[in-house]
Design brief:
Layout (H helix, E strand, L loop, with lengths): L11 H7 L11 H10 L40 E2 L4 H10 L2 E8 H4 L5 E2 L6 E15 L2 E7 L11 E5 L11 E3 L1
Length: 177
């Protein structure tokens, strides 16, 4: 865990563009992404910045960093399912990145802030995100989650969602490194 003691940000774009076992912005499976991170590795987000945003357009797999320098890949050592309890997810978040997936409903797409709870609208599909923290506001427990739709969406690219009730299935498949 020493290498990530300062929480290095790794390139989501590299995974979207280079993981051939998944479908880029059109979907995939968390376990296959972790297999890619373990077998292939990923450069830093500073090397290959995220450009797909809410447009959903993936690019080709880069052979150099955005600035033309050589790509250095860091491999994950292992993956662990931490979705056994709310406490295990909290422990995972304290130790490093926790990727998860959840069900997206129409009301989530128009989210602008606050603690999200699905109230209306049809199911739009599944979506992969990263739980980065948790807290309580006005007596409501929440997960703080990093989304991939850009800094102009939600709370500067993040959202908060009810914690402890498996809101939209967000606590069902949580994987940590």
């Amino acid at each position: 865990n020493g290498k990530d003691a300062t929480r290095v940000l790794y390139s989501e774009q590299y995974v979207v563009n280079c993981d051939q076992t998944d479908m880029g912005c059109n979907g995939g499976w968390l376990d296959q992404v972790w297999t890619f991170l373990i077998n292939t590795g990923v450069p830093t987000a500073q090397c290959v910045t995220y450009t797909s945003g809410n447009s959903g357009v993936a690019g080709t797999c880069p052979t150099k960093c955005d600035d033309g320098s050589a790509i250095t890949l860091t491999k994950a050592i292992a993956q662990e399912d931490v979705a056994t309890s709310v406490q295990s997810i909290m422990t995972g978040v304290a130790l490093g990145p926790v990727t998860t997936r959840f069900n997206v409903y129409y009301d989530f797409e128009v989210y602008t802030g606050g603690i999200y709870q699905h109230l209306w609208g049809p199911l739009m599909g599944g979506h992969a995100v990263e739980i980065v923290g948790y807290g309580t506001e006005n007596g409501q427990d929440f997960w703080k989650v990093k989304n991939s739709w850009g800094a102009t969406w939600g709370e500067q690219g993040y959202f908060r969602i009810l914690k402890g009730v498996d809101e939209c299935g967000i606590e069902e498949q949580c994987i940590s490194s």
